[in-house]
From TrEMBL:
PANTHER family: BLOC-1-RELATED COMPLEX SUBUNIT 8, MEF2B PROTEIN. Pfam families: BORCS8 (PF10167). Residues 133-159 are annotated as: Disordered. Keywords: Lysosome, Membrane. This is BLOC-1-related complex subunit 8 homolog. The lineage of its organism: Eukaryota, Metazoa, Ecdysozoa, Arthropoda, Hexapoda. It comes from the Eukaryota. It comes from Phlebotomus papatasi (Sandfly). Belongs to the BORCS8 family.
Amino acid sequence: MHIVANEPSLAFFRIQEHVRKVLPLIVDRRSEVVQLQQDLQGHCYDMEYAIGAIKSIEASEQSFQNIHELLKNAIFLKQQLKYEESRRSKKEPSNNSVYKRLSAHITLELPDLPDLSGVVRETTNRVENMMSHARNSSSSAAPSGNGASELQRSHTTLH
């Protein structure tokens, strides 16, 4: 019995039996690891894209501050014009135009903009609307199948 138990062919048979039982599990685990690696790589690319987008938004802070100052100046100038028009209309009541009557009812008062995220979101939506309108008008005028000219947007930006 001892000789039969130590026979090399029996050992090879046991090894083959073990490999046959374990190999499908190893193949399944390997495919799971490969899938997880691909998912992780995709998430890493998404994170790098999001970080780049945030850095570009942070870099545009100076531009938004300039826009904010220009808006303040425009509002101030509009108020000065309105004041001058009201002074002139008191001096010259006979000069009533439709424009002056309409502009007297239109007021432009913008709140102070300490948080620019809403402004950024609104501006983004307006630009996207203008781009889609321009794309629709250009595609109806001259249809082209070039997908490279279209803007692409990730789900990680400003939603």
